[in-house]
Specification:
The chain is α+β, with helices and mostly antiparallel strands. The protein has one helix and two strands; from the N terminus they run ββα. The chain has one helix spanning 29-41, and strands at 2-5, 12-15. The two termini are 15 Å apart.
């Protein structure tokens, strides 16, 4: 797996990840972000995506406890 981020001055290519964090259910998102914070605090880089639907999870009125059938993050 590879991730290319095209910055203006210098692109970054990430390959051979140490760990993959994948979230399918909105209830898992807060735990995923906790794991990301721990990785960053230990000096690692993180890269990836959040789906549009993941945004619903941050607003209690919109939050849905369901599996979307694809990764939210």
């Amino acid at each position: 797996m590879r991730l290319l981020i095209q910055f203006e001055k210098k692109p970054l290519l990430f390959s051979n990840p140490i760990k993959l964090l994948i979230c399918h259910n909105p209830r898992e998102l807060k735990n995923l972000f906790s794991q990301l914070e721990l990785a960053l605090a230990s000096g690692l880089y993180v890269g990836g995506f959040l789906s549009y639907e993941a945004g619903y999870c941050w607003e209690d009125k919109l939050s849905q406890n369901r599996d979307y059938g694809f990764p939210l993050a």
